[in-house]
Specification:
Order of helices and strands: EEHHHHHEH
Number of helices: 6
Strand order of the largest sheet: 1-2-3
Shape: globular
Strand content: 5-15%
Distance between the termini: 44 Å
Number of domains: 1
Number of strands: 3
Radius of gyration: 20 Å
Mean pLDDT: 85
Length: 167
């Protein structure tokens, strides 16, 4: 990664409403006048990702109030989202082999959640707004493809769990 891949945009260097002509490849950041601007951008996702990570590290799985799955009750088979909670807790406890065999997609999801948390926590800690660069930014029409890919991954994970007889 080159220095040119990253870009720092100071608010004083840009007039209001103007945009920088250069776009960073990976990410760029700005330091706004008010820290509340940073909080508005980064705090929601830091909480949404940080709370499950913290709970999975601090609370044993046996103490969670597990609600019986309606899908299992009606069909007798596990649903497409079964196994994710147990896999998250297993990963937090360092039991990656269990998580990979029980719910492989949860491992990918866990790594993604950790990355999103680090991104937003870094913005909050540094008092900067971090934005994706050209490589990380979604282009027009990519959102639908990503949703389709995620749907296919959930379907493959569900078929795997059904074929292995996991509940």
């Amino acid at each position: 990664m080159n220095v040119e891949d990253l870009m720092l945009v100071e608010p004083s260097s840009l007039s209001p409403g103007s945009k920088s002509k250069e776009k960073a490849r990976w990410f760029s950041w700005t330091r706004p006048q008010s820290y509340w601007d940073v909080v508005g951008v980064h705090l929601p996702l830091a909480l949404v990702t940080g709370i499950p990570l913290l709970i999975s590290c601090l609370v044993p799985l046996r103490l969670l109030p597990m609600i019986p799955c309606a899908f299992v009750r009606f069909t007798g088979y596990p649903g497409p989202f079964c196994g994710f909670t147990r896999a998250f807790w297993a990963i937090s406890a360092g039991q990656w082999p269990y998580a990979l065999t029980n719910c492989p997609l949860a491992s990918i999801l866990y790594v993604f959640v950790v990355c999103v948390f680090i991104w937003n926590a870094a913005g909050l800690w540094g008092g900067i707004i971090i934005k994706p660069g050209t490589i990380l930014a979604l282009r027009r029409g990519q959102g639908r493809r990503i949703i389709g890919l995620i749907s296919v991954l959930f379907l493959i994970n569900w078929i795997y769990r059904l074929s292995m007889g996991l509940t």
